[in-house]
Amino acid sequence: MSAGPPESAPLSPKNLPPKNQTPPNQYPYRLYHDTRDLTPFRKVVVRTPVRGVAEGVGGLVSGLLAARIRGTLAVEGGAPRLGKVAGRMPGKAAKAVHGAIFGSTDPDRLITLARSFPGWAGLCYLMAGLLAYSHGGHLRASELLQRGLSVRNDDDANRYAADYLPGVVIRVEVAERIEVPVLFSEEAVFLALSHSLRETGQAEAALAALAGLPPSLPLALARCSLAAALGRDADVVADTEGLLNADDLSAALLLVRARSLRKLGDYGPARAALQEVLRRRKTSLSLRNDARTDRALLLLDAGRKTLNPREWQRRKPAELETVKAIRKDAEMHELWDREYGRAEDG
Predict the structure, then answer these.
(1) To 5 degrees, how large is the angle CA 238–CA 28–CA 197?
(2) Taking the CB of the first residue and of the last residue of the chain, which one, N or C, has fewer CB atoms within 10 A?
């Protein structure tokens, strides 16, 4: 599948809400229900929680699991050759911008072109922001993407983008350890902007940046992860009601739902959500392991709620040993996660 021209055209700032403003749920159907035949999304990537686990296996695998490699923007099918734009031979601006987008690893080159060709400035800032994002520079990416969204392009820049940018792929992190390759589109820009804002500590602005995008699983996962981080667990539960485990994105969203339900004390529905993650055997092993750990923590929470000290004394030794084993496993997992789970962010 590929994105159509409307998704590939340069963007306007109309969909970017003011900072610190929470977007309303404007869709009459669930956020995870995407009615489009064609979307800009590609297959989800679930990263391992331990950086460098594939060290020594090969440069390609190690590069995928470790920090981002500074390079040019990825393109499906390779970088396109510059030809006619809307039936006309490309001008000086088109040639310069084309070379900077597909042949440069430095966002500063696009920033310089934005100043040299004002009619192309919006497009140049956007592509510079996406390039900075692909290198892991979240603060600079957020600034450049917002600058690009605030500048209007001329017709030549819009036609160029529609002809030559549909194959550009941005790998966006929509939730912790969950990355989705997204073709150049409004979704690619706003999801990348939202992640950059989240990484720079602006969770409210990150959530607001997602308002107005078409409903999809990547959007739902990004929004619900942010809502959960902001303590809006009731909103997460409402937005994920009825969700089934059809793929890794929905499994990751079910994990977010289960954790919100656990915080709200709804242990039965939380357990059902975790069972749904484990039901599908093709679900990523990393997500299945997360579900098993969350299930153990859920049992511990339920035990703390229902057992007072006197009831503990009346428990059979075998039952006590089982609960102690679950608690030890959960504590070891949390210790492992603190020591190594966020190593890839370093």
Answers:
(1) 65
(2) C
CA dist., res. 273 & res. 52, Å (int) = 31
Q: Is the pLDDT of residue 241 over 60?
A: yes
Strand pairing class (45-46; 178-183): antiparallel
CA distance linking residue 242 with residue 33, whole number of Å: 11
pLDDT band for position 299 (cuts 50, 70, 90): confident
What residues have CB less than 8 Å from 328, skipping those under 6 apart? Answer: none
Judge residue 8's burial from the number of C-beta atoms within 10 Å of its C-beta, 0-12 exposed, 13-18 middle, 19 or more buried. buried
DSSP-assigned beta bridge partners for residue 183: 169
Residue at token pair 């006590």: 320
| DSSP track, 212-233 | TPPP-HHHHHHHHHHHHHTT-H
Rg (CA), the chain: 23
- DSSP code of 338? I
User: Under a CB-based contact definition with an 8 Å cutoff, are residues 170 and 73 in contact?
Assistant: yes
pLDDT of residue 16: 46
pLDDT of residue 222: 97
Using pLDDT thresholds of 50, 70 and 90, give the confidence band for residue 85. Answer: low
- pTM for this structure? 0.76
Asked whether the beta carbons of 9 and 168 are under 8 A apart, the reply is no
User: What's the CA gap between 340 and 338, in Å, rounded?
Assistant: 6
Q: Is 189 helix (H, G, I), strand (E, B) or coil?
A: helix
Amino acid identity of residue 47, one-letter, is: R
Using DSSP bridges, classify how beta strands 168-175 and 45-46 pair: parallel, antiparallel or unpaired.
Answer: unpaired
